Amino acid sequence: MGRLREYHRFLFEAGTDEAGRGCLAGPVTAAAVILPPGFTSTLLNDSKVLSAEQRFRVEMEIETFALDFGIVHIPPEKIDEVNILNASILAMHRALDKLEVAPRHILVDGNRFKPFAGYSHECIVKGDGKYMSIAAASVLAKNSRDRIMEALHDEFPMYNWRQNKGYPTEEHRAAIREYGLTKYHRKSFKIRNEQLSLEL
C-alpha cells in the first residue's frame, strides 16, 4: 500500500476530493468514496501522480470494491455565481449526498469545508497523498472530469481540452485570445492574466 493508509476513526468514513478547481473552462468535479475496512491497492495514490492508464486501473478497483461512491459536476455558470471555493464545497456536499451508505465521518482534502448533514468531518491538507479514501475520491473525480473535457474538445477543438483539460496553459490562453470565450469558460476567472492561486 505504500505511504497511503486507512484512517478509521470510525467505520464507514467517506473521503472526498475535487478536480478542476484551477481550470479556466469546464466543471469542478467532486467525488466521495467509502472504502471497505482492509481495502488494499498496489496503485492507489493521489491522482496527480498517476498516469492515465494507472488511474483507469485504480478506478476499476474502486468501483468494484468500494462500499459506495458518488460523483458530481458543478457547471461554469454556477462557479461564476457562487465562486470557485463555494462551488468546490458544493460539489463535495452533493457527492456525499449521493451516497446510499451513510458515512460516520468525512475526510476532506484541503483546509476548507462546511459542515455536511450533521456529520463530523476533518480537513487534511494534501490528504489525497495520505489517506486511501481521499485518494480514491481524487481518482474518481479526475477521471470523470477528464472524460467531460475530452467530450467538450470535440465541440471546441481549437482549445485542445483533450490535452489541457481546461487548465490555464499558454496554448489554452492563446486560443482564448484568438477565438474568445465559450459557454464552457468560467467568466469570473482571470482569463488573460495569470490564474489566481486557489487554495481550498
Automatic annotation (TrEMBL):
CDD domains xrefs: RNase_HII_bacteria_HII_like
Catalytic activity: Endonucleolytic cleavage to 5'-phosphomonoester
All copies of domain RNase H type-2, residue ranges: 11-200
Annotated localization: Cytoplasm
UniProt keyword annotation of Thylakoid present: no
Keyword Transmembrane helix: no
Binding of a divalent metal cation, residues: 17-18, 109
Cofactor descriptive note: Manganese or magnesium. Binds 1 divalent metal ion per monomer in the absence of substrate. May bind a second metal ion after substrate binding.
Cofactor: Mn(2+); Mg(2+)
Key words, A-Z: Cytoplasm, Endonuclease, Hydrolase, Manganese, Metal-binding, Nuclease
E.C. number(s) listed in UniProt: 3.1.26.4
Enzyme class, first EC level, given as a word: hydrolase
InterPro entries assigned: RNase_HII, RNase_HII/HIII, RNase_HII/HIII_dom, RNaseH-like_sf, RNaseH_sf
PROSITE patterns for this protein: RNASE_H_2 (PS51975)
Family annotation (PANTHER family): RIBONUCLEASE H2 SUBUNIT A, RIBONUCLEASE HII
Family: Belongs to the RNase HII family.
Function in brief: Endonuclease that specifically degrades the RNA of RNA-DNA hybrids.
Entry protein name: Ribonuclease HII
